[in-house]
Design brief:
The complex is a heterodimer of chains A (about 575) and B (about 120). With about 575 residues, chain A is an alpha/beta fold. Among the domains of chain A are: about 235-345, Succinate dehydrogenase/fumarate reductase flavoprotein, catalytic domain (Flavocytochrome C3, Chain A, domain 1); about 415-555, Fumarate reductase/succinate dehydrogenase flavoprotein-like, C-terminal domain (Methane Monooxygenase Hydroxylase, Chain G, domain 1, Up-down Bundle), CATH 1.20.58. Chain A has helices at about 15-25, 65-75, 80-100, 130-145, 210-220, 250-255, 280-290, 310-320, 325-330, 385-405, 415-435, 440-455, 460-480, 500-525, and strands spanning about 5-10, 30-35, 50-55, 125, 150, 155-160, 170-175, 180-190, 225, 230-235, 260-265, 300-305, 340-350, 355, 365-370, 460, 530-535, 545-550, 550-560. In chain A, strands 1, 2, 5, 6, 7, 8 and 15 form a seven-stranded mixed sheet that branches. Chain A has a four-stranded antiparallel sheet with strand order 14-9-18-19. A four-stranded antiparallel sheet of chain A has the order 10-13-12-11, with helices on one face. The longest helix of chain A is centred in the last third of the chain and has 25 residues, at about 500-525. The mean pLDDT of chain A is about 95. In chain B, about 10% of the residues lie in helices and about 35% in strands. Chain B has one helix at about 35-45, and strands at about 5-10, 20-30, 35, 65-70, 70-75, 80, 85-90, 95-100, 100-105. A five-stranded mixed sheet of chain B has the order 2-1-7-4-5, covered by helices on one side. Chain B has a two-stranded antiparallel sheet with strand order 3-6. Chain B has a two-stranded antiparallel ribbon with strand order 8-9. The termini of chain B are far apart. Classes of the chains: A alpha/beta (about 575), B mainly beta (about 120). At the A-B interface, helix 4 and helix 9 of A face strand 3 and helix 1 of B.
């Protein structure tokens, strides 16, 4: 029998954007269900986020300057209607967080004490104590005060349901707690699933960031935008393996007023000057490595050993600005005051994703999206601090929009509901039957991650992208279709916590998203921000979006301007 | 240096019963590994049925990877295992086990519900 739960608003993903959306929709009177792949507050990419929340809080700064910095920092590829909403609401959403008990670094007089990160005309990176984890903990506590919010932990949403009018009206999921396939019926759906960094072999994001939301939206027919735009973070630990993937912020390391350190090439020489944006540092590192001046594992060094600060001052500064990383690395045997650490660019934030408007609506009625899953806010680079701000600004908007939409609707049984439920069960049963000589999901995943890194990595060009696309086609035909998994299956269940089935469903998502990324990367014949084409080394005259939807595309679409161009 | 980490893991599948049984694994390695790395190695190369939470927040904050190591609750991402030694790993909250080392964070328990 079909196991069905009803709710006004279904939110897929319980990170910063999802929880903020839940609070907003619940305070507008909706019943809200948050479906999350892990335990809410302890999973996804938000707990991994650094401390910066970009909002105006410095004398002389303004929303207009925040807007301009973001437009320019994204190389004019971000939609300006969205950026102006971000700049307009960011400070208000920071004050909401304070009301939820989230702590910001303050001056003795109670004013915000923002950091000055590259790409900001004025210091604008408000410092959240405990970073993304601290922010999310506050949101989870606040959500707990709303009886209308229920978190559904450890579930994997496999498919969205559309009703007779083709608007989003629920989902099919696999409940990892009992291994059963279930249905959810809702009046509105919000995607808040984060990004798809896990497609690349080197990334510093959550292992669950497989592009679930992008996949669900694509299958539902929504427009996806600029999928080729991936932000690399320049200074992520590449060696040793026990701490690989740990991010250390170059913005703080190289700031003489903060940590007073440097980045050095493999010959232990400095290789750039000034405050550079992330894509520029990534390019500078690439140049050193290509010239044979990289570290043994193909990166550069973080150097705090020769900090301009005294050891006491450096210790105090580390405790103040990067306490979690400092102590974590210390526990793992690396004292940053005494050793150089090898770092290299890793996939960090997916700039592309689901296309939204200024009310967080996708192109599918009843389907909303907020946070990293959305694709047309930042453009070709993201300025430090705009990610956490994005989760709060667009999370709140998505919650309000979904609540408004749900009020006008009744629950409706979709003709697709039972079919999709049965098809999902059949899909899993079929995968489970490829017992002989099948591929384990992690083998397919590792192969895909290698293809994406080698063919669609930091530097890209036509031939290699096309080759990557062919390799993914072959992987889909020869490996994905032959995938098998260990399943302790019961009668109507795929067993408790079936990790390998989760892996299988994730890699299926990753193959689809990977193909769309490669097609989009081929289509963008220019270098802009983090999309670096060696065969097209300059930006084209006018920035345009790359669109895909419903098996069509890519095609070009104008970037939205705030005002008509004169 | 002996290049083997030996681990005995307390396993339980509620679909089969409530008894915990211990299964032994050996990882050939010349280096220290975190608990999380070792579990991932077992899952990838030795036993696809092992259940544990493999998420890592990268900052030693989220506690999703907590397990009992030789009777003491530790964070799997930030605790090193050394070659030549033998360890016992069990679920951090045995009363709330979903399977093997994965427990249900929704199950209320005042003893471990601390921040």
């Amino acid at each position: 029998m079909i196991d069905l739960t009803q709710t006004d608003v279904l939110i897929v993903g319980g990170g910063g954007a999802g929880m903020r959306a839940a609070i907003e929709a619940a305070s507008l009177g909706c019943q809200v269900l948050v479906a999350n792949k892990g335990p809410v507050g302890r999973s996804g990419t938000t707990p991994m986020a650094m401390e910066a929340f970009q909002a105006v809080g410095f004398p002389g700064d303004s929303e207009e300057i925040h807007f301009r910095d973001t437009v320019e920092g994204g190389y004019h590829l971000g939609d300006e209607n969205l950026i102006s909403v971000l700049a307009r609401d960011a400070a208000r959403r920071a004050r909401d967080l304070e009301a939820y008990g989230v702590k910001f670094k303050k001056k003795p007089d109670g004013a915000f004490d923002p950091m000055h990160h590259p790409g900001q005309t004025f210091p604008r990176a408000l410092f959240i104590q405990g970073g993304g984890y601290g922010m999310l903990s506050g949101l989870v506590r606040e959500a707990g005060k709303h009886p209308g919010i229920r978190a559904l932990n450890d579930v994997l949403v496999v498919k969205l349901i559309l009703d007779r009018k083709r608007s989003a009206s629920g989902a099919i999921l696999l409940d990892l707690k009992d291994g059963r396939v279930k249905a959810l019926r809702s009046k509105a759906v919000i995607l808040a699933t984060g990004g798809y960094e896990e497609l690349w072999a080197l990334n510093d994001a959550s292992c669950t960031a497989c592009g679930d939301g992008v996949f669900l939206a694509y299958e539902a027919g929504a427009e996806l935008v600029d999928l080729e735009m991936l932000q690399y973070y320049p200074t992520v630990v590449i060696h040793p393996p026990s701490i690989q993937g740990t991010l250390f912020q170059y913005e703080l390391i190289t700031d003489p007023e903060m940590l007073g350190g440097r980045l050095l090439n493999g010959k232990k020489e400095p290789f750039f000057k000034g405050k550079l944006l992330r894509d520029a540092i990534v390019r500078a590192i690439g140049k050193e490595v290509r010239a044979g001046r990289g570290t043994p594992h193909g990166g550069v060094y973080i150097d705090l050993v020769h900090s301009t600060k005294s050891r006491e001052d450096l210790t105090r500064a580390l405790e103040k600005w990067q306490p979690n990383q400092f102590h974590y690395l210390q526990d793992m045997g690396f004292d940053l005051r005494e050793t150089l650490v090898e770092v290299a660019p890793h996939a960090h934030y997916t700039l592309g994703g689901v296309a939204i408007d200024e009310e967080a609506r996708t192109t599918v009625p009843g389907l909303f999206a907020a946070g990293e899953v959305a694709g047309n806010l930042h453009g070709a680079n993201r300025v430090s601090g705009n990610a956490l701000a994005e989760t709060q600004v667009f999370g709140a908007l998505a919650g309000a929009s979904a609540a408004g939409w749900a009020k006008e609707k009744n629950f409706e049984e979709s003709p697709d509901e039972r079919d999709e439920w049965q098809q999902t069960k059949a899909l899993l049963e079929k995968m489970g039957q490829n017992k002989e000589r099948g591929f384990r999901p992690f083998q397919v995943r590792e192969k895909l991650q290698r293809i994406m890194w080698d063919r669609c990595g930091v530097e890209r060009e036509d031939e290699s992208l096309a080759r990557g696309a062919r390799e993914l086609e072959r992987l889909e035909k020869e490996m994905l279709s032959q995938m098998t998994f260990a399943s302790p299956a019961g009668d109507d269940s795929f067993g408790a916590y079936p990790r390998e089935i989760q892996d299988a469903l994730e890699v299926r998502v990753m193959v689809t998203v990977g193909k769309l990324v490669l097609a989009s990367a081929l289509f963008r014949e220019e270098t802009r921000g983090h999309h670096m084409r060696t065969d097209y080394p300059s930006p084209s005259r006018e920035p345009v979006h790359t669109l895909v939807a419903g098996g069509k595309g890519p095609w070009a679409k104008e970037v939205k301007k705030k005002e008509p161009r004169g | 240096m002996n290049g083997t980490i030996k681990i005995s893991i307390g396993r339980k599948d509620p679909f089969i019963g409530n008894a915990v049984h211990y299964q032994d694994y050996e990882i050939q390695t010349g280096r220290d590994m975190t608990v999380l790395e070792a579990l991932q190695e077992i899952y990838l190369r030795h036993d696809p049925t092992l259940a544990f939470r493999h998420y890592r927040c990268g900052r030693r904050l989220c506690r999703s990877c907590e397990v009992k190591l030789d009777g003491k609750v530790v964070r799997g991402c930030a605790t090193l295992l050394h070659p030549g030694r033998t360890y016992r790993i069990e679920a951090a909250r045995p009363e709330a086990v979903i399977r093997d080392l994965v427990f249900d964070f929704d199950a209320s328990n005042s003893q471990t519900a601390r921040e």
